[in-house]
Design brief:
Layout: H1 3-23, H2 29-49, H3 52-60, H4 64-69, E1 79-84, H5 87-91, E2 96-99, E3 102-106, H6 113-123, E4 131-137, H7 145-166, E5 171-179, E6 185-189, E7 192-200, E8 203-206, H8 207-212, H9 216-244, E9 258-264, H10 273-282, H11 302-305, H12 316-359, H13 365-388, H14 401-413, E10 432-435, H15 436-439, H16 452-461, E11 468-475, H17 482-503, E12 511-517, H18 528-534, E13 536-543
Parallel strand pairs: 1-3, 1-4, 4-5, 5-9, 11-12
Antiparallel strand pairs: 2-3, 6-7, 6-9, 7-8, 10-13, 11-13
Helix pairs in contact: 1-2, 1-12, 3-6, 6-7, 7-9, 12-13, 12-14, 13-14
Domain OmpA-like: 427-545
Keywords: Membrane, Transmembrane, Transmembrane helix
Main location: membrane
Length: 570
């Protein structure tokens, strides 16, 4: 998979996680901000970490020649990443070698194996299923067993990383070279300890059959080589293969697909691992061959490539599509879980408010009104969601508002408010009646000298206050001219008003006068007692919103409400 495609997948995953955090995670704004920063940091780290090995590889080694020499995208033969010892001898300074069976690519060091694979996959993403690893061993050039074990462990770790990068199992091949005369390749495949002889990359035969072929002289030479091959098989089983399956490595065991042996005329190193092992088994020292033959200059293990399985698996593009589908599925499941949680919280809160409302006694009016206000807030929230649309965090077909709204409204409509307090009926002040004979001479409208006490008593009973007007009405009996009686009654009412204004601090706006003459008798006019009762002056309070308002100077005419008593002077 290319670096660009990996970065795109990482960014897509981080974007989906960020959307989940903002829209569906049931956490506060502070936690969402912290989560967003963590996601941003993860995206930035992934962006720079992807391709880091490739950048380091290019910084230490010139890869331009290799990238220019790579086969085309349509190359479908095995691509073998070759690392280990003797690469100068194998590649002769070239970055890669193409043979009819595959393409061998030189890896400068074992630690660069995964980085080289990442670079190749970024340039040739379609090669993901064609990659394999080849470890080249020269036992006669090694004199330190721990170093050899470390090389095998590093090879094992790098192949596990390649599997993670490519998404395919990277097959492992082992190619071993010993000093000797030119001979065919000898190979052992996994699960089959029988050694086969490859005279060409297309044909092989069992070692026993190969020993029986040829002339007597050839059979003697082949027998000597077969002894060395059997010794090499035992050395591999005791020294190399156990290092591939040890449990002290932070990666899965490595099971090589095949191991091959070739004899080449390369002088061995003194006191090397191979000679020490042979000496320990036989006390003999192997003979060194210094001759060379045609074809030994470049000896790649082409026969081993025929054992590699055919190309299988998905292309990087299909794998990327698969990853996107998986991410979307995880995103939907997480979004549904978040929406379900948020809706449960909403339902729990409203149900709790409804239960609290129902638990309060109906006659507990203050608490009931407070609970009702919360129910109305919940109803307003649901109505806003219905009107403006359900928020995304409550969506995904899980919103319970349509089910909870009817019972909520039923509770609100069933509320019985507290009964209004009974208001005391404001009784109109009783009318104060004054006997005209006590105040006036017959036929006169001037107050008599002894009328002060009667008027003071009336003033105590009738007091001006805002919103009430003091109505003073004059009345006469039916004796005499009706028109004169009307004027006389009005004049007497005005005389009483003028005395009250003069005597008290009540404003003139608090008074109104009216003369009724003999039109409103309270007794019969046919008897002296009845006529005496009809000759009167009445004081009463009449409601009038604009009457008796305080003056601009701040004079307060508001007094206590009048006593509800009736005084009648005779």
């Amino acid at each position: 998979m290319s670096i660009a495609l990996k970065r795109a997948l990482w960014l897509a995953g981080c974007a989906l996680a960020w959307i989940l955090c903002l829209l569906w995670f049931p956490v506060g704004m502070g936690a969402k901000t912290a989560c967003s920063l963590v996601i941003l940091l993860a995206a930035a780290t992934a962006w720079f970490r992807i391709g880091h090995g490739v950048r380091a590889l290019r910084a230490h080694h010139n890869m331009d020649a290799l990238l220019a020499a790579l086969p085309a995208d349509s190359w479908r033969q095995p691509v073998v990443l070759t690392a280990g010892e003797g690469h100068q001898w194998l590649f002769a300074g070239a970055p890669l070698r193409e043979t009819p069976q595959g393409c061998y690519i030189l890896v400068p060091t074992l630690a660069d194996l995964a980085s080289m694979a990442e670079m190749l996959l970024s340039a040739r993403p379609e090669w993901a299923s064609q990659l394999s690893g080849l470890l080249v061993l020269f036992p006669e050039q090694q004199d330190d067993q721990p170093v050899l074990a470390a090389q095998i462990g590093e090879f094992r770790y790098q192949l596990s990383r390649i599997r993670q990068l490519s998404g395919h199992r990277c097959q492992a091949l082992l190619a071993c070279y010993l000093n000797g005369r030119h001979a065919p390749w000898f190979a052992c495949s996994a699960g089959n300890r029988q050694t086969r002889v490859w005279s060409s990359p297309q044909s092989s035969q069992a070692l026993d059959e190969w020993l029986e072929g040829g002339s007597t002289q050839q059979q003697d030479a082949r027998l000597r080589e077969a002894v060395r091959v059997e010794a090499w098989v035992r050395w591999m089983s005791e020294t190399v293969l156990p290092q591939c399956e040890t449990a002290d490595q932070p990666c899965a065991p490595l099971r090589p697909l095949a191991a091959g042996l070739a004899f080449v005329a390369r002088p061995p190193k003194d006191s090397n691992l191979w000679h020490r092992w042979i000496a320990g088994k036989t006390t003999l020292r192997p003979v060194t061959i210094n001759e060379s033959a045609d074809g030994e200059a470049v000896r790649f293990p082409d026969p081993l490539l025929s054992l590699l399985p055919g190309r299988s698996g998905y292309t990087p593009r299909l794998r990327a599509i698969g990853y996107v589908i998986i991410m979307l599925m995880v995103f939907m499941v997480a979004a549904l879980a978040g929406s379900s949680w948020n809706n449960r919280q909403l339902l729990r809160e409203i149900a709790s408010d409804m239960e609290r409302y129902q638990a309060i006694a109906m006659d507990n009016y203050p608490s009931k009104a407070e609970a009702l206000a919360q129910l109305k807030t919940d109803a307003a929230l649901l109505e806003r969601y219905h009107r403006n649309g359900v928020p995304v965090r409550l969506g995904l077909w899980l919103y319970p508002g349509e089910q909870i709204y009817p019972p909520l409204m039923a509770l609100i409509r069933g509320y019985q408010p507290a009964p209004e307090p009974v208001k005391e009926a404001v009784k109109a002040p009783e009318t104060v009646r004054l006997d005209s004979m006590s105040l006036f001479e017959v036929g006169k409208s001037e107050l008599k000298a002894g009328s002060t006490k009667v008027l003071v008593d009336a003033l105590i009973n009738i007091k001006g206050r805002p919103g009430w007007i003091v109505l003073i009405t004059g009345h006469t009996d039916a004796t005499g001219d009706a028109k004169a009686n009307m004027a006389l009654s009005l004049a007497r009412a005005e005389a009483v008003r003028d005395w009250m204004i003069k005597t008290s601090d009540i404003s003139a706006s608090c008074f109104a006068v009216q003369g009724y003459g003999a039109t409103r008798p309270v007794a019969t006019n046919s008897t002296p007692a009845g006529r005496a009762a009809n000759r009167r002056v009445e004081l009463s309070l009449v409601p009038d919103a604009m009457a008796c308002q305080p003056a601009a100077t701040g004079t307060d005419t508001t007094l206590t409400s009048p006593d509800k008593a009736t005084s009648h002077s005779k």
